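=== RUN LOG ===
request id: a7f3
mode: sequence -> structure
chains: 1
length: 62
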Amino acid sequence: MLTYIKESIEELRNNVTLPSKAESSNLMVIVAVFSVLFALATWGVDTVFSKLIKLYFSNILN
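=== RESULT ===
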């Protein structure tokens, strides 16, 4: 386990490069846009299913 941790830290130091500030900002905007789109899609599907379930149960109970 200790060897794994040491090798992981060494790999992070030698092989991992961080993106520039500009690239990070661009990626953050992309993630934010897709998060909002996914949230809106989830809300839309939830709304449709909610109305379908209400319609279904109102027809059964009447």
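=== NOTES ===
The radius of gyration is 24 Å.
The first helix runs from residue 2 to 15.
=== END ===
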